[in-house]
C-alpha cells in the first residue's frame, strides 16, 4: 500500500470531522467524519474494481461540486488502484470534452445535478453517484491492501491552466503527492486540530493538493464554502487555516473597507485568530500584502509552485515574510536560476527558475514530446517563470518568461513590477501590463485597467503618477480601459487573451 494511502487512512480519528459542507438553506452545515468518508470510499473502490484486483492505473474522471462526495470519489479511485481525474462545474462543455478526450477515462462518476453536463462527451460509461449508492456498504476499518496502489503508481491527473495552449494532463504519482504533503506539513505546521476554510476550485493543485489533501494528510477538518466576501470574513472566526489567491484577498479587503466599523472590528478579530493564511497561484502585490496586514492583522504567507513540481518555495511559517518574495526552497526541492546563455545566475541576476524536486510529475499524459521539452539537458524542469535570488537566498518572481517579461527599447522589464506601482493609483481597481508588438519599441508597455466606480484615467495621468517610482522606460505608453480582465478559475489574468484584444 502506498505511503499516501497509509497516511490518509491513519491520520484522522474515525469520529473526528473530516469535511463540513453546506446543506439546504434552512439547515445547519453537515459534518462528515473520517469513518464515514473512508467507508464510502471503500464502497466506491469496490464498485470500480468489480472482480478485478486493481484498476492498474486506469483513469477515472469525476464531476462533483466541492463536497464530501468529491473527496469520497477521489479516495475511492486511489483505493481501487486507479488515477483520479477531477473535473469542475466551472468547465464549459467544450472544456470538459477536451479534458475527457485527453484523459480517456475508463469510467466517469458524476453528481446527479451535474450528470447532464457530460451528455455526449467522451466514450467512457457514466455512473451517477447518488447518496444510496455511496452509502450502501463499507466498514471504514482499513483499505483493501491487495488492491491499493504502490508508491510509484499514478494517483492523480490534473490539467495545466492552458495559458500557453490547450490544457495538458499532468500525472502525479502516489509518491509525488506524499512527498509534497509531507513537505508542506513540515513547512506550515499542519496538525490534526486545524480547521481549513476551503473556497478554492477543486480541479487545480492549489485547491485539491495543497489545501484539501494537506488537511486530510494531517487529519484536520476542511470546511467547504462558496466564496462570498462577507460570509468568508464571518467563517474565518471558526478557522485556523485559510488559503487563497490574490484576487480573493483583494475582494476581502474591498468588503472590509465597505463594512461598518463594528463589523470591521469583528471581522479583524476573527481573522487575527488564524494561525496561517497563505497566498499563491499568482503573484501577491506588495501593496495587498501590506494592506491586509494593516487591516486584518495577518501577514500573508506567499509561496510558489506548479502542478508539475508541487510546492517549491515558501516564505517561513516562523520568521519574517517578505512582501513581493516567494521565499526559499522547501525540503526536497532544488532550484537554479538560469540565464539566456544557460549559465546559473548569481545573486540579483534574473533568469528562468529550473527545478529538481522529489514531488515531480511523471509526465504529460499521452504527450511524450511535451514531457521531454519540459526538461533541460541537466534534467531540470523549465518553469517558464523568471525570477531573481538575493544574497540571502530569497527568491522574487519577475513574471512569466513568455508574457510578463517585456523587451522594450532594449530593456528587459518585469510586468509585475510595473503592475505593483500602477495598482496604487486611486482610480485603478485592477491592472495587467502587457507588451504589445511595436516596430519602434519591440514591446509597447500597455496597461489594461479596470477602473474604480466613477473614476476616469488617461495614460498621461498614469505616467505622471508612476514617474517617481519607475524609470522612464518602464512607464506605460498606452492605456486600455476594460470592464473586466479575463481570468482563469484561480484568478490568473489571461494575458494571451489581452494580447489578442
Question: What's the Cα radius of gyration?
Answer: 23 Å
* Main sheet: strands, sense, barrel: 9 strands, mixed
Share of helix, binned = 25-40%
Residue share in β-strands: 25-35%
In short:
The protein has 501 residues and is an alpha/beta fold. It has helices spanning 3-10, 34-49, 68-79, 93-103, 131-135, 174-188, 205-218, 229-235, 246-258, 261-272, 286-296, 368-373, 415-422, 459-466, 495-500, and strands spanning 17-21, 30-33, 59-63, 83-87, 107-110, 126-128, 154-159, 169-173, 195-198, 221-224, 241-244, 276-279, 301-306, 310-314, 328-329, 333-338, 351-357, 363-364, 381-389, 395-400, 405-408, 411-414, 428-438, 442-451, 478-481. It starts with a helix and ends with a helix.
Defining key terms:
alpha/beta; 501 residues; 30% helix; single chain; four-stranded parallel sheet; nine-stranded mixed sheet; 25 strands
Could you characterize what this model shows?
It is a single chain. The chain has 501 residues and is of the alpha/beta class. The chain has helices at 3-10, 34-49, 68-79, 93-103, 131-135, 174-188, 205-218, 229-235, 246-258, 261-272, 286-296, 368-373, 415-422, 459-466, 495-500, and strands spanning 17-21, 30-33, 59-63, 83-87, 107-110, 126-128, 154-159, 169-173, 195-198, 221-224, 241-244, 276-279, 301-306, 310-314, 328-329, 333-338, 351-357, 363-364, 381-389, 395-400, 405-408, 411-414, 428-438, 442-451, 478-481. A nine-stranded mixed sheet has the order 2-1-10-9-11-12-13-14-15. It has a four-stranded parallel sheet with strand order 4-3-5-6, sandwiched between helices. Strands 16-17-19-20 form a four-stranded antiparallel sheet. β3, α3 (68-79) and β4 (83-87) form a beta-alpha-beta unit. α9 packs across α11. The longest helix has 16 residues, at 34-49. Mean pLDDT is 91; it is low at 136-140.
Amino acid at each position: 500500500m502506498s505511503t499516501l494511502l497509509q497516511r490518509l487512512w491513519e491520520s484522522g480519528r474515525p469520529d473526528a470531522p473530516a469535511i463540513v459542507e453546506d446543506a439546504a438553506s434552512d439547515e445547519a452545515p453537515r459534518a462528515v467524519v473520517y469513518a464515514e468518508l473512508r467507508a464510502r470510499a471503500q464502497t466506491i473502490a469496490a464498485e470500480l474494481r468489480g472482480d478485478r484486483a486493481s484498476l492498474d492505473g486506469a483513469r477515472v474522471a469525476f464531476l462533483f461540486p466541492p463536497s464530501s462526495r468529491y473527496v469520497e470519489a477521489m479516495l475511492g479511485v486511489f483505493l481501487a488502484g486507479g488515477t483520479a481525474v477531477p473535473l469542475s462545474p466551472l468547465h464549459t462543455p467544450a472544456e470538459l470534452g477536451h479534458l475527457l478526450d485527453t484523459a480517456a477515462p475508463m469510467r466517469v462518476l458524476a453528481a446527479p445535478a451535474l450528470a447532464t453536463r457530460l451528455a455526449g462527451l467522451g466514450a467512457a460509461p457514466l455512473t451517477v453517484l447518488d447518496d444510496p449508492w455511496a452509502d450502501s456498504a463499507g466498514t471504514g476499518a482499513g483499505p483493501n491492501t491487495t488492491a491499493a496502489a504502490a508508491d510509484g503508481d499514478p494517483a492523480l491527473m490534473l490539467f495545466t491552466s492552458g495559458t500557453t495552449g490547450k490544457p495538458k494532463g499532468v500525472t502525479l504519482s502516489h509518491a509525488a503527492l506524499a512527498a509534497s504533503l509531507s513537505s508542506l506539513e513540515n513547512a506550515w505546521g499542519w496538525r490534526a486540530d486545524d480547521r481549513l476554510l476551503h473556497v478554492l476550485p477543486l480541479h487545480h493543485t492549489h485547491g485539491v493538493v495543497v489545501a484539501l489533501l494537506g488537511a486530510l494528510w494531517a487529519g484536520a477538518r476542511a470546511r467547504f464554502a462558496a466564496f462570498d466576501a462577507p460570509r468568508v470574513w464571518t467563517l474565518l472566526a471558526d478557522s485556523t487555516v485559510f488559503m487563497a489567491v490574490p484576487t480573493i484577498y483583494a475582494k476581502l479587503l474591498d468588503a472590509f473597507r465597505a463594512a461598518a466599523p463594528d463589523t470591521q472590528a469583528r471581522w479583524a478579530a476573527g481573522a487575527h485568530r488564524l494561525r496561517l493564511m497563505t497566498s499563491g497561484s499568482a503573484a501577491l502585490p506588495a501593496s495587498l500584502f501590506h494592506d491586509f496586514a494593516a487591516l486584518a492583522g495577518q501577514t500573508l504567507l506567499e509561496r510558489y509552485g506548479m502542478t508539475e513540481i508541487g510546492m517549491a518555495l515558501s516564505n517561513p511559517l516562523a520568521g519574517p515574510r517578505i512582501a513581493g518574495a516567494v521565499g526559499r526552497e522547501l525540503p526536497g526541492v532544488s532550484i537554479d536560476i538560469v540565464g539566456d546563455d544557460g549559465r546559473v545566475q548569481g545573486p540579483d541576476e534574473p533568469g528562468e527558475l529550473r527545478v529538481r524536486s522529489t514531488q515531480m510529475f511523471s509526465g504529460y499524459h499521452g504527450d511524450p514530446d511535451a514531457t521531454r521539452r519540459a526538461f533541460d539537458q541537466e534534467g531540470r524542469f523549465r518553469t517558464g517563470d523568471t525570477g531573481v535570488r538575493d544574497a540571502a537566498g530569497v527568491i522574487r518572481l519577475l513574471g512569466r518568461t513568455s508574457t510578463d517579461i517585456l523587451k522594450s527599447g532594449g530593456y528587459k522589464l518585469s510586468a509585475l513590477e510595473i503592475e505593483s506601482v500602477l495598482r496604487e493609483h486611486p482610480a485603478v481597481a485592477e491592472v495587467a501590463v502587457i507588451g504589445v508588438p511595436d516596430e519602434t519599441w519591440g514591446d509597447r508597455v500597455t496597461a489594461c485597467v479596470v477602473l474604480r466606480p466613477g473614476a476616469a484615467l488617461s495614460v498621461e495621468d498614469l505616467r505622471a503618477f508612476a514617474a517617481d517610482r519607475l524609470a522612464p522606460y518602464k512607464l506605460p505608453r498606452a492605456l486600455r480601459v476594460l470592464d473586466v480582465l479575463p481570468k482563469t478559475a484561480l484568478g490568473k489574468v489571461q494575458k494571451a487573451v489581452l494580447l489578442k484584444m
